[in-house]
């Protein structure tokens, strides 16, 4: 397939170039954690990754292209969903994973930087939306399985249930400053499960 017309940073390299991509994306993540999106510089990323500047500029072209590829990689590398046989336990696992990610010394600041960038950059916003769409679809399988077991009312929207788990956790991170801990994860999961059982998410 020709890559003509494909936006820089969206082509998936293979073979030896995969190692270059891995190094550059790791360096980009480190730079975002340290300096935020406004401080992201392709030349600095190249230096951190130990690769030539021309390689980075040719493949990603812009900082937004680099962040878009970083988000795509994060979606690809994310942990698979839980499959415990119980809706509430699956949702707890989802909430615990969100809390673990957002409180991680590296992942937490990285997500905060990317979310901040997405508020003012359309391409970063598009990439962030794609990242969460992938993760929601992955975890929606928990709700689909619960529907098949008869745990939830017919017509329940699986995506909405998963969004309801993570939304209050991101609110704590970005707005309220309330603790992000195991108790917060349990509360988010239990609230989403209770609402789902009550038919709130029936469409």
Automatic annotation (TrEMBL):
UniProt key word Transcription: yes
Pfam families referenced in this protein's UniProt entry, alphabetically: TetR_C_11, TetR_N
Q: Which sections of the sequence are annotated for DNA binding?
A: 41-60
Q: Which organism is it from?
A: Streptomyces yanii
Can you tell me which residues the record assigns to a coiled coil? Answer: none
The molecule here is called TetR/AcrR family transcriptional regulator
Q: Which UniProt keywords apply?
A: DNA-binding, Transcription, Transcription regulation
Which residues does the UniProt record annotate as the domain HTH tetR-type? 18-78
Q: List the SUPFAM superfamilies.
A: Homeodomain-like, Tetracyclin repressor-like, C-terminal domain
Output the InterPro entries linked to this UniProt entry: Homeodomain-like_sf, HTH-type_TetR-like_transc_reg, HTH_TetR, Tet_transcr_reg_TetR-rel_C_sf, TetR_C
The protein's superkingdom reads: Bacteria
């Amino acid at each position: 397939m020709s890559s003509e017309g494909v936006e820089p940073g969206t082509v998936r390299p293979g073979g030896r170039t995969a190692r270059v991509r891995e190094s550059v994306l790791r360096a980009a993540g480190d730079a975002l954690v340290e300096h935020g999106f406004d401080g992201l510089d392709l030349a600095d990323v190249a230096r951190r990754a130990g690769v030539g500047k021309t390689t980075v500029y040719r493949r990603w072209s812009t900082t937004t292209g680099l962040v878009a590829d970083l988000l795509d990689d994060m979606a690809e590398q994310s942990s698979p969903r839980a499959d415990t046989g119980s809706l509430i336990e699956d949702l707890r696992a989802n909430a615990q994973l969100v809390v673990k990610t957002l409180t991680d010394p590296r992942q937490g600041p990285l997500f905060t930087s990317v979310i901040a960038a997405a508020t003012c950059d359309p391409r970063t916003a598009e990439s962030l939306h794609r990242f969460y769409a992938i993760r929601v679809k992955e975890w929606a399988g928990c709700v689909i399985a619960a529907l098949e077991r008869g745990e939830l009312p017919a017509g329940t929207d699986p995506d909405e249930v998963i969004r309801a788990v993570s939304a209050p956790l991101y609110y704590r991170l970005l707005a309220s400053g309330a603790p992000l801990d195991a108790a917060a994860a349990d509360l988010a999961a239990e609230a989403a499960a209770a609402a789902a059982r009550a038919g709130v998410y029936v469409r």
